[in-house]
Amino acid sequence: MTVFEMIINGDIPSTKIYEDDVCIAILDIAPRAKGHTLVISKKVYPTIAEAPYETIAHMMDIVKKVDQKMREGLNADGTNVIINNSPASGQEVPHLHIHVIPRFKDDGISFFPPSTEYADGEAAEYGRMLKI
Ligand code: AMP
Fold first, then answer.
1. pLDDT by residue (tens digit) across 7-59?
2. For residue 112, pLDDT beyond 90
3. How far does residue 39's CA lie from ligand 1's centre (Å)?
């Protein structure tokens, strides 16, 4: 059982800001910024790959509401919306969840500094490999 299932079942406490039949939203216990929220599916899907489109779409609707609330309630200037998928990405809890992190001008947080670059012609090659 994942830690999020225990939270959904009420077996361990959380600070809940939203709940419906599909998902809950709680504060992350180790916030990257105060107000850092997790929108968590009630059914367990390890990653976005296993989750049905309707669930993801619904969760993104709630993410949009959380983003709005962070702007209104916390005076946030922006948010980061992040999903880690599989351990290689840094995912610790194998239960679909979307991080929503409030951001403020000049808060000094940097999640995605560039860490590689393309050699000549390589971007086109990656473009071909990833073309959908
Ligand atoms: P991820 O690395 O995307 O799997 O993120 C898992 C997140 O869950 C981390 O940011 C943790 O701080 C958070 N987390 C773990 N246990 C709890 C808990 N009991 N209540 C709230 N957040 C939690």
1. 999 999 999 999 999 999 999 999 999 999 999 999 999 999 999 999 999 99
2. no
3. 11
Residue nearest atom 15 of ligand 1, based on CA coordinates = 29
Residue of 47, 92, 100 to mutate, ligand 1, most atoms within 8 A of C-beta? 92
Based on the residue annotation, tell me whether 97 is a catalytic residue of this protein.
yes
Which atom of ligand 1 has the smallest separation from the CA of 6?
A: 19
- Beta-strand runs (E) in the chain: 16-19, 23-27, 37-41, 78-82, 97-103
User: Which atom, in ligand 1's list, is nearest to the CA of 82?
Assistant: 3
Superfamily of domain 3-130 in the CATH hierarchy: HIT-like (3.30.428.10)
Give per-residue burial for 70-91: e unless 16+ CB within 10 Å, then b. Answer: beeeeebeebbeebbeeeeeeb
* Cα(54) to centroid(ligand 1), Å: 24
